[in-house]
Design goal:
alpha/beta, 9 strands, single chain
Length: about 300
Amino acid sequence: MKVGFIGLGIMGKPMCKNLIKAGHDLIVTTHNPDTLKEMEALGAKAVHNGKEVAEEAEVIITMLPNSPQVREVALGKGGIIEGGRRGIVLIDMSSIDPTESKAISAVLAEKGIDMLDAPVSGGEPKAIDGTISVMVGGKRETFDKYYELLMNMAGSAVYVGPIGSGNVAKLANQIIVAVNIAAVSEALTLATKAGTDPELVYQAIRGGLAGSTVLDAKAPMMMDRNFKPGFRIELHMKDLNNALNAGHAVNAALPLTAELMEIMQSLKADGCEKEDHSSIVKYYEKISKVSVEKEK
């Protein structure tokens, strides 16, 4: 299959590599010239913009930071809509505002270009090993047609509903992850402040009802003081802002989301926005005047 790929960042690059490994012909573009050279060395064809990608590919995947970038790549000057032809498909795997997914899809549909919104969860490690989770909105028949393509990058791909539904599911995911990380941070801060080794508390609770993927992924990072980004605070802020906007649009109250947004804003003010979202623990450490670390 001739696959276009636009956006080769932390997530996009390993996803693209997995498609190349699966035997697809890739046409790629990104702002980073070194990444383009790397992809060319692996057999991909590098072009200048979305228009040129759309002229050659039968399906185009975008993995971009937010709604404005997706709109520009899809509908702007030199964008997909200029090079696209009836029958091609855009699979937007970015995490954006679902109202924007619907609006972009409507414009593309006028030119006969179908669209799926298919945001992902799992972070860089799962993008590398091809086990991300994909939640997909759009036409069911389009999802069925490209399911195997998605599974070349993913551990699961689940159809959620009409266009926009994928991003609604992703926002729900991001709310749960943020609140879960905050709960882990709060609990381990309590353990440390009370004089109990947080590592032993973690080992004691991880097999019970409090156990979770988030606990196992983030608690060790907190205690090891490893805040190398798998998913940056600033990107999670973007998702929570989209969640709040979507919630306001449908009159859904999101009080915990709003509180986490303010916690992350505080961390951004402290210069932590490029760190992994496990650094939420730093907010709790700051207000409790303690550092969550394993006992030496």
